[in-house]
Request: fold
Amino acid sequence: MKVAEPAAVAVAYNEIKSRAESRWRELANGDKPVIMVGTATCGRAAGALQVLKTLRNEVKKHNLDCPVVEVGCMGHCHAEPIVMIKKPGYPFISYGYVNPVVAERLVKEFLLGDDPCLESVLGALEENDLVPSLADFPRAVYEKKIILQNCGQIDPTDIDHYVARDGYAALARVLQMPPDDDVINEVKKSGLRGRGGAGFPAGQKWHACRSTPPGPRYIICNGDEGDPGAFMDRAILESDPHSVIEGMIIAGYAIGASYGYIYVRAEYPLAVARLEIALRQARKLNLLGKNILGSGFSFHIRLFQGSGAFVCGEATALAASIEGKPGTPRPKPPRMTTEGLFGRPTVVNNVKTLAFVPPIIRNGAAWFTSIGTKDSPGTAVFALAGKIANTGLVEVPMGTTLRQVIFDVGGGIPKGKKFKAVQIGGPSGGCLPESALDLPIDFDSLQDAGAMMGSGGMVVLDEDDCMVEIARYFLEFTQRESCGKCTFCRLGTKQMLAILDDITLGQGKEGDIDTLLQLAEDVKLGSLCGLGKTAPNPVLTTLRYFKDEYEAHITEGRCPALMCRELIAYYILPDKCERSCDACVGTCTVEAITPNKKRIKVIDQEKCVKCNTCLVACPPQYNAVIKLSPPSEVPAAK
Amino acid sequence: MAEEAEKIRRETGRVLGRFSRKRGNLIPILQKVQHRLGYLPREAMLEIARFLDIPEIEVYGVVTFYNQFRRNPPGKHSIRVCLGTACHMKGGYITLDAWKRRLNIGQGETTADREFDLDTVACVGCCTMAPVTVVDDKPQANVEPTRVDGILLAFEREREKKHKENRESS
Reply:
């Protein structure tokens, strides 16, 4: 490789940067108002596209000179669709739960008039005297945004927005460094650990790959976020794709690779579309492709769409998939860093790991190690979902406790329900009970508790969730997704699932728990890759912390959380049922509810499909519909 | 039938024309063909195997390994019930039952009139909107059994409207 020409790179970058900055200044601090709409997938599911359309129509109708910009996900997914408005003379305000009616009002009352519609405000994005700012929220005490910094703040389809916020500055700096170990040493010093779940030091991986004999090397960005319940990678790819691309190019430069693959799930069509746009724009500005910024370094990125196989999150399976084969893992060693994609040395890094690289280069390793804990520096990104008030994305320094994340950042459990467990790490992780909530979050302490950090999915469970059922659910998932190569993973998980199926159907037998434990150990030992090695984790952790629930299912045929459908029955309390109301009768999806002679509603247990609709429909002042377990608790009709 | 076979040959040929005969192109080719035809018929798989000069069983192996590929024709509207963790815990399995009951088909099947096909998806990453059903590639938030009826009613109304318009115009 030709030695970089530092001055030329700096000149080329500064030109791009100054143009981007002037465009950004015009948008963010100009004398025009600006509307931003969060249109990541979560926003779209909540109706952001209708809101966007209404806003564009209204702006056009009133002949306003006001750009309407699509941005990514701010992380406050519970309040989607979110709209942000910057009007000269007012602070930058974000609005939550916006629907087309509110959108119309925002244009008419705020942009045309001077009423900032305070009733719909979520929070201001800057300190001011008018509206409380998001930084004043209690959760802001714990949050520290590094890789989510740009998410929801910039237009992911406009590279200038990213560049204006110091984007590609790290790449320009790296290209001015000699292509030896400087970059790798900086990443090593930062202590950055892989965010895909295992926590392997990234710098060490890069070093191992770089130390191989000369020849083609590859870098793969692993965006095969298959964990059900996790959506951090999707949000980052949709909201800030350039941060990942920049991290990849830097990694390529550091390990001496000139080709990279971004492996994204085909289930994330928006992420694919936005990545394609981002790659095109980066190539156009010569930040990617041949002779990047005149440095002599060339790097090419191809997008590969995964076809929906959980096991492809495993590096060797992922490589097989890119080669056009079924994604089955192979034994290691040889490690990927010596023999990977097409038999060549390959580095596979998670989306978040790569997104951390540019800020580390920009701010230095010392800055990074000052955040988080000694052995797990930096921040952790979690996708909060399930029974929690503020569902969405959070980024907190490592070492924050689970309790702080769930109750202080996440706002606790809604509807006054009681916390039961938190499921971390998806199918490879485990369920941790209340007693584990004061554990600091880092790679090692979670492992000790039987769970693992995984890629960062966090599903909160409350008293209505059955722990046997959640273990069964995850095992059903891993059993289905097992590639079938290792006998224990293929057949062991099948037997475990059969036992758990029986238990949730009320057909559990004495001795089932012991068989489960034994099988779990065998599957762990007899599997090649992470999928099989960790598949029993959800069963093992629920057995460790919630054994009494298993026992209630097996010995009493009772589901304590009233969730397993074969073990419950719906019943209408006659003394609570209101004669003049028939909300449940009308909503019952199978016409199983009829009023008796006294106009008290009765459920026909034969017809009932246990769809829960009547329980939701019964007005809260009566609350007459209840669940009973076991079903024999239902009083016989008189 | 001949028309269908002709279409399969034409579309598969069109996709193959844009790829080189590299083994690594297998999955992108399958994705593009399915994108055009909606599924991967036997004839298309055979054609692809010939093109890449690999055993037919290898194409079949890849098609059956990955969840994305389907071997039967889809309905006009696709219903994908998300069964990610959050959706499951918030009653996604109840929603799936409701779809099955209303459409009268099982998972992975298409209705007899080829209007709807029903399947599940591992997770679409909209966990905060659980339970989610992806209807015609658009994720719908909080789909509980009553929303299932609502969505189907909306399709019914649209069909009636189109029917009426067709009658009026003819």
Summary: The mean pLDDT of chain B is 91. Chain B has two domains: 2-65, 77-169.
